[in-house]
Amino acid sequence: MPELNQLQKKILEEVADLHKVPEGAYNIRSDSKSVGRRSTENIEIVPKTDVSGLDIRIRPGTKNESVHIPVILTESGLRETVYNDFYIGEGADVLIVAGCGIDNCGNQDSEHDGIHRFFVERGASVRYVEKHYGQGDGRGKRILNPVTEVTLADGASMEMEMVQIKGVDDTDRRTVAKLGAGAKLVVRERLMTHGEQRALSTYDVELNGKGATADVVSRSVAKDDSLQRFDAKITGNAECRGHTECDSIIMDRGRILAVPALEANDVDAALVHEAAIGKIAGAQLIKLMTLGLTEREAEEQIVNGFLS
Amino acid sequence: MLEIKNVSFSVSENDGDKEILRDVSLTVPARKLLVITGPNGGGKSTLAKLIAGIERPTAGSIFFDGEDITDLNITERARAGIAFAFQHPVRFKGIRVLDLLRLATGKNASVAEACEMLSQVGLCAKEYINREVNDSLSGGELKRIEIATVIARGAKLSVFDEPEAGIDLWSFQNLIKVFRKMRNEIRDSSIIIISHQERILRIADEIVVLKDGRVDRRGTPDELFPNLCDAASVSAPCRMAEED
Fold it and tell me: What CA–CA distance (Å, rounded) separates B96 from B87?
């Protein structure tokens, strides 16, 4: 049972909704060290020997089990790259909760780059939740550059919930997915940037098998002087269905760039892209103000609802 | 309760100022249901917006419970006890019907309480409480939710801007019941409804006809109805009455 201090506990709550040590398999990484790890009968977590990171193996047929692998950074100036590989056995159905929280009170930049690879075998199903969070009033930046590679075998499915609501100064997220026949990928990204933050999010999804489907949806809010870029590409190489959507609220002096890209290499590939960027509608503010909210409270409700 | 004194409102257009309301004076006493009617473009919706603070008069003043509220903003007027139902309700991505009702009541209303509010406007609460107030709702559903948010506020003065607009005939029957019930339970509050509908005009304590930005005439339904349809000033209620 790991001993966690208040700061570690606070960050764990933010990134993984954890109030105590999670049930099931877990690895808690704090300032480049594992401060707690547990494998279960069906889920094995083994540290890599060549690079920093973990191999996580989930037995075929494992149902209703979960893996938590939160990361905490509290030392200013710490920069790390971590390689985690997930092998999800045939027919398994699991929840994987990742996430990284950085507390930087110092003047040097702190950075965590998580390189996650998922190998989801035939008919297996994964729900993946990844939350990014930053805090601390130092001048050092909080930087997260995650790379996620997903390989879905025939009939496998993965639902990814990617959330970054507060405090991360700079992020360059890259997600690559390759789908086999009948495989299904659902991505729900929620992003809020403020101050002078920058967030780039790039998706490259290949639908390679008959009946593969992908639905990549990003909802984002850019406040203050922040900058966002949502770059989503879906390639249809077979009879398949793909949909990407970027729905953004822009505020203050924020900037948002949406870059849609669809590539159809099969006559039966059906691909759709939607993108909308706009400020909060005046009528929405007025409606909430007629309920007694101030303009600022109304704005907060609209943004919170939009990102919920 | 509400006193509108010599209120005028104009907007700038390419060829000069256009006057929407001209020197309108009106009193709405406590415990009364007032229906404002009149031809399109007569200034009804503008008057409702001036009461809620969404627009400000170019001249004149508005008093509420004896206090001059002319310079109060929308939030301050809402907190003073004025509720407003939009003619065209707003949609919100991600905000649920339950959230909106909770914001309206200003407290963390229970699901049971919120369901009760929805039932009042004829919506089967279970189906709606967790739905987002977004494009998936029909115009009629949205309108009834809008009315529910105003009822939920329990305000001293509730203003409804054309509640019948965009509502089907079936829902309209329910709507009449809702307003009748509100009228019966009015206590010390007041209600203003902007409407073209004869059946809403019939339940008014007083009807005000607004035409060309002025109060054309006012009176009880019994006083006004014999001439309401004859006068060219109000054609809409008569047309709808015939359709009923």
Answer: 20
User: pTM for this structure?
Assistant: 0.86
- Please give the structure tokens belonging to residue A103: 């507390």
Number of inter-chain CB pairs under 8 A, A vs B: 59
Give me the residue spans of the domains in chain A: 1-164, 169-281
Residue A263 phi, psi dihedral angles, 5° rounding: -130, 115
CB contact under 8 A, A291 and B74: no
* A268 contacts chain B (CB < 8 A): no
Domain hosting B69: range is 2-243
Helix/strand/coil for B147: helix
Q: What is the pLDDT of residues B153-183, one digit of tens each?
A: 999 999 999 998 888 777 788 888 889 988 9
CB contacts of B99 in chain A (<8 Å) are 301, 305
Task: Kindly give the parts of chain A with pLDDT less than 50.
Answer: none
Q: Taking CB atoms and an 8 Å cutoff, what residues of chain B touch A283?
A: 86, 88, 90
What pLDDT is attached to residue A2?
66
At residue B211, the pLDDT reads 92
pLDDT score, position B229: 63
CA neighbor of B182 nearest in space, from B90, B85, B100: B85
**Contact check, Cβ <8 Å, B73/A307:** no
φ, ψ for residue B106, nearest 5 deg: 75, 10
Q: Do B84 and A290 touch (CB under 8 A)?
A: yes
Contacts of A302 in chain B (CB under 8 A): 92, 95
pLDDT tens-digit readout, A157-183: 999 999 998 888 999 999 999 999 999
Cα–Cα dist A304/A298, whole Å: 10
Q: How many CB atoms lie within 10 A of CB B184?
A: 9
CATH code (residue B51): 3.40.50.300
pLDDT in the model for residue B230: 52
- Per-residue pLDDT, B54: 96
Instruction: Between B73 and B226, name the one with better pLDDT.
Output: B73
Percent of chain A with pLDDT over 90: 74
> Average pLDDT of chain B?
88
The answer to whether the Cβ–Cβ distance between B90 and A302 falls below 8 Å is no
How many domains, in total, are found in chain B? 1
Min distance A127 CA to chain B CA atoms (Å): 21
Phi then psi for B121, rounded to 5 degrees? Answer: -100, 15
Residue of chain A whose Cα is closest to the Cα of B105: A291
Q: Are B135 and B153 in contact (CB under 8 A)?
A: no
- Helices B111-120 and B139-153: angle between axes, nearest 10 degrees: 120
Task: Name the residue among B234, B212, B232, B213 with its Cα closest to residue B221.
Answer: B234
Looking at this protein, which amino acid is placed at residue B113?
A: E
